[in-house]
Write a structure and sequence with these properties.
Number of strands: 6
Number of domains: 2
Order of helices and strands: HHHHHHHEEHEHHEHEHEHH
Largest sheet: 4 strands, antiparallel
Number of helices: 14
Strand order of the largest sheet: 3-4-6-5
Bound molecules: zinc ion
C-alpha cells in the first residue's frame, strides 16, 4: 500500500462505447434523469434569436441616422414641407439640397401672387400653373427621395440585424452540454456522491439501501449496490470474452464497523501516518458507499499492489472500466488531489454517463471535474 508512485496509466483506446446491460438501478437510470436537464438547457438556445432581435434596431440606428444628421439643410427645410411626418423619413428628405429650393420658391411665388390679388383666401388657391407644376415636381421628387432613402435605412437595419445574429452569445449553454447537477455530490445514496478526506460520509454510519451480492470470483464475499453489482458482473464477463482475462473482487462494500477494523489494523501495523496514505479513516471510505470495488487478477498476481497496473488485467481495467461506469479513483499523478497513493485496483462506480464524460474530457478525478477542493489530508 505504500509502494512508490508510478507513471500514469495510458489513456484508454476504446473507440466505441458499449453500454453494458445494466438493470434498472434503484438510484434511477442516468438516461431518464439526464433527459430532462438536457431538454431544459435547449430552451435558452431557442431564445437566443429573440433576445438579440430587440438589439437590432438599437445597433442599426446610429449607422442609418448618422449621415442624415450631418446634412446642414435640416433646420431650414423642415417647417416648409410638413408632408413627411415620420422623423426618420423627414431627415433623409432634407438631406437633398436640390429639393429644398423649389419648395420655398414655390411658396414665395404663391405669396407674391396672393399679394397681387387682394381677397384671395389662400396662397394655395391662387398658385399659377407654373408654380403648381413646380410644386408637383418638387413633391414627386421628395417622394422619390423618401422612398430611396427609406430603402437605404431599411437595408441598414436588416444588415445590422444579421450582424447581431452572427455575434456569439454568452448566456446560452451549448447544446448537449453535460449536466453536472444531475445528481447530488453530498447525498451518500447518490451515484455521484464524492467522499474523500475532506468530505466524510454523512451520516457517518450510512448503510446503502440496496446492497446485493456480486456474483464474481472473489477473496472476500463482495456486496455492492444493485446497479454497481450488475456493472461489475458485466465488466468481468467482458474482460473474459474480449481479452481472455479472469478478474476477481478483493473488497467491495465495507460498513462503517468493518472500516473501523481495517483502519485500526493498518494503524497498528504501520502507524497512523502510513495508514492514512492507504486506508480511509472510518466514515471517509468510498467502500462504505457500496459503489466501490478493489479488483485484482484471479491469479492473485500483484494483488492490491501497485504492480497490478503493469499486469494484463490492470491494463485492461485502466483502458476499459469507464465503458462500464467505473473510474480509477486514485491515479498516479493525482495524489495531491485525492490524498491517496496510486491504487490501480480501486474502482468507483459513477454510472456510464459520468464515466464517459470524464473519459472524453480527460479529467481523471471527481474533485477536479466538479471543481471541488483537493483533499490531500484530513
Ligand atoms: Zn479500495
Amino acid at each position: 500500500m505504500t509502494s512508490p508512485t508510478r507513471p500514469e496509466i495510458p489513456r484508454m483506446g476504446i473507440s466505441r462505447f458499449e453500454k453494458p446491460g445494466i438493470a434498472d438501478p434503484v438510484a434511477g437510470p442516468p438516461e431518464s434523469v439526464l433527459a430532462e436537464p438536457v431538454a431544459a438547457e435547449a430552451l435558452p438556445i431557442e431564445l437566443v434569436p429573440a433576445e438579440s432581435s430587440p438589439t437590432e434596431p438599437v445597433a442599426a440606428e446610429p449607422d442609418a441616422g448618422a449621415p442624415v444628421r450631418a446634412e446642414p439643410a435640416l433646420a431650414e427645410a423642415a417647417p416648409v414641407e410638413p408632408v413627411p411626418a415620420e422623423p426618420v423619413l423627414g431627415e433623409p428628405v432634407l438631406a437633398e439640397p436640390a429639393l429644398a429650393e423649389p419648395v420655398p420658391a414655390a411658396i414665395a411665388e404663391a405669396e407674391r401672387v396672393s399679394a397681387r390679388v387682394p381677397g384671395a383666401p389662400t396662397a394655395e388657391s391662387t398658385l399659377s400653373p407654373r408654380v403648381r407644376r413646380n410644386r408637383i415636381i418638387a413633391g414627386a421628387s421628395l417622394a422619390l427621395v423618401v422612398v430611396v432613402l427609406l430603402g437605404v435605412v431599411v437595408g441598414n437595419l436588416l444588415d445590422a440585424g444579421h450582424g447581431a445574429e452572427a455575434k456569439p452569445t454568452v448566456a446560452a449553454h451549448p447544446a448537449g452540454e453535460f449536466n453536472r447537477a444531475a445528481f447530488s455530490l453530498d447525498d451518500p445514496a447518490s451515484p455521484w456522491v464524492i467522499v474523500n478526506k475532506q468530505r466524510p460520509i454523512v451520516p457517518v454510519d450510512f448503510t446503502p439501501p440496496d446492497l446485493v451480492e456480486v456474483k464474481v470470483a472473489h477473496t472476500w464475499k463482495p456486496l455492492l449496490r444493485q446497479e454497481a453489482a450488475v456493472a461489475v458482473e458485466t465488466m468481468f464477463a467482458a474482460a473474459t470474452s474480449e481479452a481472455g482475462l479472469s478478474l476477481e473482487s478483493n473488497s467491495a462494500y465495507r460498513s462503517y464497523a468493518s472500516q473501523v477494523e481495517v483502519y485500526t489494523e493498518e494503524v497498528t501495523s504501520k502507524g497512523r501516518t502510513s495508514a492514512d496514505q492507504s486506508t480511509a479513516r472510518p466514515g471517509t471510505s468510498e467502500h462504505q458507499t457500496g459503489l466501490t470495488i478493489d479488483i485484482g487478477a484471479e491469479s492473485g498476481i500483484c494483488r492490491l499492489n501497485v504492480c497490478f497496473a503493469d499486469s494484463a488485467e490492470g491494463h485492461w481495467l485502466a483502458e476499459n472500466a469507464w465503458r462500464f461506469g467505473f473510474l480509477l479513483r486514485y491515479p498516479a499523478d493525482k495524489v495531491s488531489v485525492t490524498g491517496y497513493e496510486f491504487e490501480p485496483w480501486h474502482f468507483r462506480y459513477i454510472g456510464t454517463d459520468l464515466a464517459a464524460e470524464l473519459h472524453s474530457t480527460g479529467v481523471s478525478t471527481l474533485e477536479e471535474f466538479f471543481g471541488l477542493p483537493a483533499a490531500p489530508t484530513y
